[in-house]
Amino acid sequence: MQRDLKELNLNIEYVYHSGFKLETTDSVIIFDYYQGPIELPKDKKIYVFSSHAHPDHFNPQILHWQEEYPELKYIFSSDIKEAIPSSRDNYIYLEPYSETNIDSLKIKTYGSTDEGVSFFVELNEGKSIFHAGDLNWWHWWGESPEEIKLAEKMFKEEISKIKGIAIDLAFFPVDPRLEHYYSIGGEYFIQEVKPKIFVPMHFGDNYGEIKKFVEKMTSSPTQVIEIKSETKSF
């Protein structure tokens, strides 16, 4: 299965939490930058995605990047508009379940089980990428049975809208704060959507839980990537 990742011909860098940098031959895509060092090339098109306004998914610092890279384009969920003082031509705001083309990127948004959107992006090389944002099965200890049941219903309804699309590479939450239920969203997503490659996110510095999740999914036909503290590019 390792060849699947190589065949994508993408350089993928884990920045932090839900933040990733993807680099192709002619472009760079940033998802949900939160914090951490990041380098941007001068000779490629740059697209910066933010799935919603929560500070661990949208850092206003990214707006300063356009001072050095004036051709940079931002793709934001519509709720971020309230967090930005003024708009510009290179800011694109998207509601859930909308579609747009930006240069060679085909972008479709899906919903979330928290705030904002999730992103489905098709590259001109035929590769397809899904970034879930805060879409997850949020089963929290201490919630009422009614709240837990509603969270499951909302999540499964959203996944049913995504099921059936071909996804080469998926970034999806595996959140240790959910304790015993940290993996149920990711497992269900893999089972129903069947991405070729699954990259865990939304785990902060808890690399041990990611190792445990990867071991749990060894029999899955989906390749699950283990992000390690010492190896953040793959």
Task: Tell me what the structure shows.
The protein has one domain (2-224): Metallo-beta-lactamase, Chain A (4-Layer Sandwich). 34% of the residues are buried. By secondary structure, the protein is of the alpha/beta class. It has helices at residues 2-7, 65-68, 145-162, 184-193, 207-216; strands at 11-16, 19-23, 27-31, 45-50, 73-77, 91-94, 99-102, 105-110, 118-122, 128-131, 169-173, 197-201, 223-224. Helix content is 21%, strand content 26%. The protein is globular. Strand 10 (128-131), helix 3 and strand 11 form a beta-alpha-beta unit. Helix 3 runs parallel beside helix 4 (184-193). The chain has five helices and 13 strands.
What are the defining features of this structure?
6-stranded mixed β-sheet; alpha/beta; Metallo-beta-lactamase, Chain A; 7-stranded mixed β-sheet; globular; 5 helices; single chain; 13 strands; 234 residues
